[in-house]
Amino acid sequence: MSIASPAPPDVAPVSPARTSRWRADLLVTGIALVLAVWVTSGLWIDPNGRAIKVNSSDQALFEWLLSYGARAITHGENPFFTHLIGFPDGANLAVNTSITVYAVLFAPLTFLVGAPATFLVILTLNLVATAYAWFWLLSRHLVRSPLAAATGALFIAFAPSMVSHANAHLNWTAGWLVPIVVWRVLRLRDGRWLRDGALLGVLVAIAFSIAAEGLFFIALACLVFLGVWSLSKATRAEARAALPAMLRGLGVTAVVGFALLAYPIWMHFLGPQRFHGTGFDARVHSEDIAGYFAFPQRSLAGVLGLDTSLAPNETEENSFFGLPLVLLAIGAFWYLWRVATPGRRATLRALGVTALVFTVLSWGPAVKIFKNYTDFPLPYALLNPLPVFNAALPQRLALVVTPIVGLLLALLVDARPRGRAWVAAFAVALVPILPVNLLTVAREPIPTFITSGNWTSVVPPGGVLATVPFTLDTVPDGQRWQAYAWTHGQGEFSLASGFYLGPGGPDGRGRIGPVPRYTDGMLYEVAQTGVIPPIGPAEQAQARADVAYWRLDALVLADQIHGSKWPVQHDALLSATQQLFGPGERIDDVWVWRVKGS
């Protein structure tokens, strides 16, 4: 039985009239738009002046990536490597989440309204597009009822994991990629392997540029699902018949995808400033077993005080379905299995095994439950050292489970089970996880020193500037300044540091930002603690050596500094910088130290 047509063979799918179909499309899209704007409403109040509270650093990074991508187009620069951050070594953007396709497509909007507003537009559209893409796939290929398709699609698009990653992750909220890739993979068996393989190759290249880790998960999920489905007795013959076309299509996909991605793949694995494996601990970044039964923070249950802190941070609540929804999903699987034909059972078996595999893998290398770490090993321990796996976070494998739960809900609604108990079960399971809007905070304004263009009197064209403290994920202002200067046609300056992943982490893995030297390391500690260490001639000499290494033209300390995790100790920073480099020069709303040649 065809995977894309799960309806029992004795019931012919009913195709609604074209007008009714598009009305349903518009209705679901409208609902999704309302929900997406509601979730992101805190930013819509003032896109330039507000930031996502729990992840303002990633927001600043994605805004910078959007502005850099726009600049790369207009200046003919390499979109996968730059010396504008991490100077003088530079940053390999191919091993970072460079969202190149978004940066190119939305470049006109970035120049028109600025990177912060463009970031917000993409974030909102990601949620809407995810809902519509899943509704389209479900309503056209998987279920008969528009209500069933809408139930599954809206759940997937606004599930706890998606709302969690809406905390500034433009890559993971691009959930619309999943149904499109899955659809094109299934189309490979139709016999038009050359055309369909080429289309899938283009789509793979797009997905790689937006969410490479997500593309890896999609490929793994398809492999597990199709493998289990093909081994089922009821579908074995169909799988054998489709295999030649699938293999030829995948061959074309590989050729087209490699042709489009040859350079970024080379940069990713062999280019300068590359690294292999992130510096994040797989044990920490694994899904807590209890997290599957917990309620998410940005949900109705969460704001009523039923949330937990089982995730490493609020952007990584990758399961958090709540106990009622877990029970409903199990109940849906049981009911659908009971009424299923052998072909339908093959599909359900494949969905169930895929969900189980990714659930267990998301638990990471060892059992963690209620934040208690154990030494009890799990299968991921065998995968963690492998290439690609060592650059992924195991907890995010739980993201594969969300669409499967959504599919089960859609199939259950489509099966029209009798009795009010199912309606009550849906209410009890879904109402507590209804999304609420993301928390936002006021973001410190970009200094007049930058917005007025007066920085050009201090830093020559192509010169190097360092913020105090040096720009990193916890103090990301420098890259916001760069983004503003580029999109407003002021010119460019390089940063001696920056928020990006680069080499220099433990065991040859990556780390955030460049390996610190004395000056930036000391100023970072002062910014966080307010404690100034002894500074004498030796420390001043080391600071001068660091300045020479970075080829700095100026250090700049703004009056207002955004700390994404902790308040920045401004007065201590001013005192420490004065002790290192002498009295600063007051320009507009910043302190400046002209250190060129010092």
Summarize the structure.
The chain is α+β, with helices and mostly antiparallel strands and 598 residues long.
List the helices and strands and how they pair.
Blueprint: H1 18-39, H2 41-44, E1 50-52, H3 56-75, E2 81-82, E3 91-92, H4 100-105, H5 107-113, H6 115-142, H7 146-157, H8 160-165, H9 177-187, H10 193-231, H11 236-270, H12 300-306, H13 323-339, H14 342-362, E4 366-369, E5 372-377, H15 380-383, H16 401-415, H17 420-430, E6 440-442, H18 448-451, E7 464-467, H19 477-487, E8 494-495, E9 501-503, E10 510-512, H20 518-529, H21 537-550, E11 554-558, H22 570-581, E12 585-587, E13 590-594
Structural overview:
With 598 residues, the protein is of the alpha+beta class. The protein folds into two domains: 114-433, no CATH class; 448-594, no CATH class. The chain contains 22 helices and 13 strands. It has a five-stranded mixed sheet with strand order 8-7-11-13-12, with helices on both faces. A two-stranded antiparallel ribbon has the order 1-6. Helix 19 links the parallel strand 7 and strand 8. Helix 1 (18-39) runs antiparallel to helix 6 (115-142), helix 3 crosses helix 6 (115-142) and helix 3 runs parallel beside helix 19 (477-487). It starts with 17 loop residues before the first helix and ends with a strand. The model is unreliable at 4-15 (pLDDT under 50). Keywords: Membrane, Transmembrane, Transmembrane helix. Pfam families: DUF6311. This is DUF6311 domain-containing protein. Residues 78-429 form the DUF6311 domain. InterPro entries: DUF6311.
